[in-house]
């Protein structure tokens, strides 16, 4: 199947997202998705998994109240395939967005389940990284991440219910999801930083 090229996907993301925090989140989820594709035996599709990660929050900056509802329109207009659109929408499965609608498109493919599980968790892990003297995931221990995860007051916006549901959908225990996602982020951090620096230059 022909897919949107990575460069085109990145340009499309930047058409609707200007906030560096959002660009960094998209690059992070892209890198984590690529890491998981390789780890789970989908190495040939790593770029494809990454593109889905890159585009998953495309509508969030401009249409936060219609998150996951506006995305199909933006993506279709740009010629993005229905398979990617399905994956993007399914990362909101069961979540009620600001306008009051609940997303009913469920993740089906393993790629979609990984996106659902890892997206919310990358937010929590990055928040934990920023609290560290190093401001990095690279020296973060699983034990400290687990502690942050259990602390209700920490990064309260990152829904533990969504993360747990993500692990359940994959048939993984929470520890496996935390371990793998932390490793994915630690291994990708330098590359993401390089891309962010290139954007700012
Ligand atoms: Fe996201």
List the helices and strands and how they pair.
Layout: H1 6-16, H2 20-39, H3 46-55, H4 71-77, H5 82-90, H6 110-130, H7 142-150, H8 160-170, H9 174-200
The protein binds fe (ii) ion (FE2).
Topology as H/E string?
HHHHHHHHH
Helical fraction equals: 55-70%
Q: Using the CA coordinates, give the radius of gyration.
A: 16 Å
Largest sheet: none
Number of helices: 9
**DSSP summary, beta strand count:** 0
> How would you classify the helix and strand content by structural class?
mainly alpha
Distance between the termini: 35 Å
Shape: globular
Strand content: under 5%
Task: Name the bound molecules.
Answer: fe (ii) ion
Low-pLDDT ranges = none
What average pLDDT do the residues reach? 96
Organism: Blautia massiliensis (ex Durand et al. 2017)
GO molecular function: hydrolase activity
Protein name: Hydrolase
Keywords: Hydrolase
Q: What does it look like?
A:
It contains 9 helices and no strands. Helix content is 62%, strand content 0%. With 201 residues, it is mostly helical. The longest helix has 27 residues, at 174-200. The structure holds fe (ii) ion.
In brief, what are we looking at here?
This protein is an all-alpha fold and 201 residues long. 62% of the residues lie in helices and 0% in strands. The protein has 9 helices and no strands.
């Amino acid at each position: 199947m022909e897919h949107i090229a990575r460069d085109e996907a990145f340009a499309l993301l930047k058409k609707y997202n200007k906030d560096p925090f959002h660009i960094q989140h998209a690059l992070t989820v892209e890198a984590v998705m690529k890491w998981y594709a390789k780890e789970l035996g989908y190495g040939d599709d790593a770029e494809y998994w990454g593109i889905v990660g890159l585009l998953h929050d495309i509508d969030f900056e401009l249409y936060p109240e219609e998150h996951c509802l506006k995305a199909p329109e933006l993506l279709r207009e740009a010629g993005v395939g229905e398979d990617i659109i399905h994956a993007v929408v399914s990362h909101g499965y069961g979540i009620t967005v600001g306008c009051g609608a609940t997303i009913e498109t469920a993740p089906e493919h393993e790629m979609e389940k990984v996106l659902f599980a890892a997206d919310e968790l990358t937010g929590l892990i990055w928040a934990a990284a920023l609290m560290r003297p190093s401001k990095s995931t690279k020296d973060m221990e699983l034990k400290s991440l687990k502690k942050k995860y259990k602390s209700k007051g920490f990064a309260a916006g990152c829904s533990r219910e969504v993360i747990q549901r993500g692990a359940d959908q994959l048939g993984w225990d929470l520890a496996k999801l935390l371990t793998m996602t932390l490793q994915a982020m630690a291994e990708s951090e330098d590359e993401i930083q390089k891309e962010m620096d290139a954007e700012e230059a």
